[in-house]
Structures are given as structure tokens and as C-alpha cells.
Amino acid sequence: MSHKNWRRTFAGGVLMVEAIICLMAARFALACFSFQQIAGFVSRPVRRSQLSGRRRQIALKTVKRAIFNVWRHLPLKTTCFHRALAAHLMLRRRAVGTTLYYGAVLLPDRGLTGHVWLRDGLEFVVGEEAAKGHRQLASYPDGGCIIK
């Protein structure tokens, strides 16, 4: 294995471990903290200069792929909220501020169903597939909250 391939493989492995840790941290947070506490954390601004341009796009793509790959193979059940919170944590570490959205839809077969998704501006990071049809109830940061 060449030096370049080894570095890429190692970096990918570290990224997968980070995604697992962040998913577990999200599970812990959702089990132990109130929604208001989590919303307060998610609403905090990134304290350093945010990435922009190509570096931002690479960070978004990398985190999105890592969360998806780990989620598919993780034996523990994770919800859209876990995945969105984990992606938020990973992107925050990379100086990328995101917005977490909470929405709901009334489905004939399941009743009122909630969904959480994460976006960077207009670009979906996590939760795009199920967000369609859901009415946005709140976003963090920036409130825009319909329900309190």
C-alpha cells in the first residue's frame, strides 16, 4: 500500500470513529437532556472563522458520507434526530455552522410524525429524504419557532 493510500485509509477510519462517537454522544444527549438544553447547544454560534468555498463543501460532503455510512452499519438504532445532531457536532468541529430543523406531518397510516433534518443554507446535510412533506415547526439557530 502506498503512503498516500495508507494516509487516506487511516483518515477515513478516523472519520468513521468520529462519526460513531458523535452518534453515541447524540444518543446520550437526547436521553439525558431536555429539548431546550439541546436547542440551546445547537443554537450557539461557531466561535471561530467559518470555512467557506471549496473547503466548506469538502467538509459537508465528508461528514454527510461518514454519518450515512456509519448509520447504515451501526447495530444500535438511531433516529433522524441522532443523525442530525451528530452531523452538527462534526461540522461544528470543522468550523461549519448549520441549521437544525424540526418538522411534522400528519400521515394517514401513522398519525402525527416528526422529523429532524440538518442544512447548511439551502443544502441538505442529513434528513433530506424524509423532510419532503414535513411542515417546518422550528429551526435552530434562528428560532423561527412556531411552537414553544
Commentary on this structure:
- With 148 residues, the protein is of the alpha+beta class.
- The chain has one domain (3-140).
- Helices cover 53% and strands 20% of the residues.
- The chain has five helices and four strands.
- It has helices at residues 3-32, 35-43, 53-73, 80-93, 128-131; strands at residues 99-107, 111-120, 123-126, 135-140.
- It has a four-stranded antiparallel beta sheet with strand order 3-2-1-4.
- β2 (111-120) and β3 form a beta hairpin.
- α1 packs across α4.
- 25% of the residues are buried.
Keywords:
148 residues; alpha+beta; 4-stranded antiparallel beta sheet; 5 helices; 53% helix; 20% strand; globular
* Low-confidence segments: 144-148
Which strand order does the major sheet show?
A: 3-2-1-4
- How much helix, percentage-wise, in residues? 40-55%
So what's the overall shape? Answer: globular
Q: Tell me the radius of gyration.
A: 16 Å
The helix-strand sequence is: HHHHEEEHE
| Class based on secondary structure composition and strand pairing | alpha+beta
What's the count of strands?
Answer: 4
What is the distance, rounded to the nearest whole angstrom, between the alpha carbons of the first and last residues?
A: 55 Å
Share of β-strand residues = 15-25%
Biggest sheet architecture: 4 strands, antiparallel
Overall pLDDT, averaged? Answer: 88
Counting H and I runs of at least 4 residues, what is the number of helices?
Answer: 5
How many domain modules?
Answer: 1
